[in-house]
Amino acid sequence: MINEPEYVSIMDKDHNKLVVIMVGLPARGKSYISNKIRRYFTWIGYNAKMFNVGNYRRKFFKNSFNDHKFFDSRNEDTRNLREKLAISVLDELIEWTLNTSGRTISIFDATNTTKLRRKALVDKLEKKCINYLFLESICKKKDVIEKNLQMKLQNDDYKNMDVEKAIDDFRKRLQHYEKIYETIDEEECVSYMKIIDVQRSFNISKIDTHLKFEVCNFVMNININSGKFYVSRHGQSVDNVNKTIGGNSRLTVNGRGYSTKLFTHIHNCGDDIDVVFTSTLKRTIETSKPFLKKYKVINKKLLDEIDAGICDGMSYKEIKLIYPEISKKREEDKLNFRYPYGESYRDIIDRIKHFILELERTDDTVLIITHTAVLRCILGYFVDEKLEDIPYMDVPLHKLFKLTPDKNKYKVTGVQLK
Amino acid sequence: MINEPEYVSIMDKDHNKLVVIMVGLPARGKSYISNKIRRYFTWIGYNAKMFNVGNYRRKFFKNSFNDHKFFDSRNEDTRNLREKLAISVLDELIEWTLNTSGRTISIFDATNTTKLRRKALVDKLEKKCINYLFLESICKKKDVIEKNLQMKLQNDDYKNMDVEKAIDDFRKRLQHYEKIYETIDEEECVSYMKIIDVQRSFNISKIDTHLKFEVCNFVMNININSGKFYVSRHGQSVDNVNKTIGGNSRLTVNGRGYSTKLFTHIHNCGDDIDVVFTSTLKRTIETSKPFLKKYKVINKKLLDEIDAGICDGMSYKEIKLIYPEISKKREEDKLNFRYPYGESYRDIIDRIKHFILELERTDDTVLIITHTAVLRCILGYFVDEKLEDIPYMDVPLHKLFKLTPDKNKYKVTGVQLK
Q: In terms of domains, do A207 and A265 share one?
């Protein structure tokens, strides 16, 4: 049996490194998008890293910034400083990209609003034969810009400033950028994607590798009005009591009790659930039973528990006894370990990744009733858990997790239903 | 257990009818794209139908067309005729859309190259509250246009004409269209996707429903340089001999013999295989063994056989005896029948559809070693088999199928390896 956890697709065997270069005025959600790309591609197995030029500036040039004049392009001193900074962050990005083994996505998160700046970036990247894709966020919707602007007031540039003064200063900073802003055009001859007015319109040009396509496809799925998700394991099953893994046993009385409590709890929350998903195994379907009265319930095979292959139906104790080698290998690398003729955590991520994209896109409220390993992979994605730690996340029976969109991440709250 | 074979996604519960309106000069691949959309969406469970205005014209106005002058917009008579024809085909499309239950995609395949024409279509559709999406194919690549032009010579307009004369006439027809061609612009305020120079660049605007998104996503995956695919079941397994379904048995001596023959056959074909896919079950992995020496072999759970649920490990005879109800239901509707705690053919399509998109996108040569039901779903898609007939396709053991792109379809050839 071949372990191929790093395999994502048929295509692009030779293009497994990509630099994503953000373009756009301040407060256009560039960091929001960058962060989502980093999170998703990390989760599906890339080495993904963001390089935010603003953060570097705030860290290394603390004293150079006083107010918006820093961003005035007529100010030669600060202009040179900013140029130099951008290039040195790019150098760091290039170094990281070349020195990181495997498939990498490096995101250069800065305004990059002039052709001259972009040309400088492209020249450097092409010298190193690194593939790149420009992602330009164009937004003229006043309400979105205002919302993003409020977020800006929380960063270090403004945290000790009077709010009104800060807003005024930020608006002036915006004007400096607007004066010199040049949108990407065909003459630049680069691969690009433009996101226009938050996710309804896109211009996509020269997508010549599979990885660029994957990034564009992901970005098309991002929704700024994210949905709200409830996630839980099934109620206690007979196999849970017997401490065996896999199988397809029914719920215990205790487990059926959870099913009722789960329904009552969600009903009392006042959240209107749009759809309930379960796996195709008895224990999740039984758990969803009370929901049938009121909600649409869908059984999805892709939500089935990790396939334990030859260990299906055994307890961990038995596995250790009969297949000590399996126990050992699993302990050494729980993320990549694939049960013989079964699955690994990586395999689960591969099987649910399109489902995650649907969740990214929806603004519905969704309840998912699934199993330990699948629940960990779902939660791990939304709370941005370190990949190696996902197989160890604490997801006890009869605990309901609620995921609520919160800035660039999801806030998770858990309640043990007793 | 809930049967939900028609379920595709979380979103768009209320937008399950869409009209796709093609736009573009002749010989820009509009029918090619239309056909692919029809085929894919039919396969995933939509009622999808193409309405090609050219075919209607050739059928009903046989005698009006003599040469390119028919398409000259200064020719008032034929212009009126063409207007009338387009509208009456649209009427037929609307009628079909409204009278077809369930989720529908209707494709209006015509040039629709003027704002006036598009306005007329939109007015009619909006009156009936039908959602629509424009798909404009823009292509300036001479080689592609020339290739498409050659295809045109095979249609009824030119089949009795001298080749050179036909080409000359078609070029003149093109010029008539070019004179009046107006590309879609923002002022028209419609949802659209522009496909620019065959699949590398796209403009996508106002995609406000999930179904429009799905169509755009599919179109982005279309590749005119399609890959070549070999597909086969595993070699004979112990369970095959015992006539039981499901399970995870190994190959028989006979089965291992097929594995060697398969390798030799493909090796001798001279086709350079880029990647071999198997399921995660022993019988396909064993079949792929000889390929390990030379090729990249990937085991994919999504290629596993249909999950027979409570019938796993039984013979059809036993099922009929123990679960006569299951046997009966399965016979009545093999496509939708889901084994209790298992899967239906529809479920398989749902599980492999993203894999099919990857195959659509690749130009690689791929060998897939899988199982009866999955093989039928894959073949069924590529050869455009009627959905209800897919579960009955003849896919004997030890037969290798080869799929080669051929115009709008795939040509399938099968060879029994003895």
A: no
